[in-house]
Amino acid sequence: MTHYVALLRAVNVGGTGKLPMSELKAMCEAAGLADVRTYIASGNVLFTSKLGEAVLKKKLEQRLHDYAGKSVGVLIRSAAEMARVLADNPFADGPGNRVVAIFLDDPPSATALDDLKHHQHERLACGAREIYVHYGDGMADSRLVIPAAKTGTARNLNTIAKLAELAAQKRDGGS
User: Fold this and answer.
1) 15, HSE (Cβ side, Cα atoms, 13 Å)
2) CATH 3.30.70.1280 domain residues, the chain
3) What CATH fold (topology level) applies to the domain 2-79?
4) Which of 58, 81, 83, 145 could make an SS bond with 117 (beta carbons 3.0 to 4.6 A apart)?
């Protein structure tokens, strides 16, 4: 069994895409996932499964579509990948609430950061299947648009650290 983290896109953010985490947990269990646990109400699910990433993504996206009546993107990472995302943070000097990783299905292209819009003081870097952004003064006033990240979902480094910790506890036999 592999330990995974599923990151839902546009769930419980700004009053749209409401999905109670108890409903999400029940959906995941009904899909045959084991050891299901949610973390904060923004669409983060930890679980174990024998299935691979592509099958899990398709299965969860279908269940979410059936529930919400619209597409809900799901990004999947193994526990080891979540730890790598945290370790590979190129902006470790920045506070965890001002650095995000935007999770993508595929590696960002070599030109992923070439067509930014409204780029001001943010620092950006590409990871394995992520785009990291350091919002020096915070996200509130930023108008940054990253076209390459359109179908991704972002989590700040504080959340990623907690997800990596929880996933590692599961992987190492913790509860």
Assistant:
1) 0
2) 2-79
3) Alpha-Beta Plaits (3.30.70)
4) 145
Gap between the Cα atoms of 171 and 155, Å rounded: 21
Kindly state the tokens that stand for 138.
Answer: 């915070």
Q: What is the C-alpha separation between 82 and 123, in angstroms, rounded?
A: 21
How many Å from the N-terminal Cα to the C-terminal Cα in the chain?
Answer: 15
The tens digit of pLDDT for each residue in 33-92 reads 999 999 998 889 999 999 999 999 999 999 999 988 888 899 999 999 999 999 999 999
Angstrom distance (rounded) from CA 163 to CA 96: 13
Do the beta carbons of residue 171 and residue 3 sit within 8 Å?
yes
pLDDT digits (tens, 9 = 90+) for 110-131: 999 999 999 999 999 999 999 9
Q: How far apart are CA 139 and CA 128, in angstroms?
A: 23
In percent, the amount of the chain with pLDDT more than 70 equals: 93
Closest of 147, 34, 132 to residue 84, by C-alpha: 132
Q: Could you say which DSSP state residue 69 is in?
A: S
The alpha carbon torsion through 71, 77, 83, 89 (nearest 10 deg) reads -50
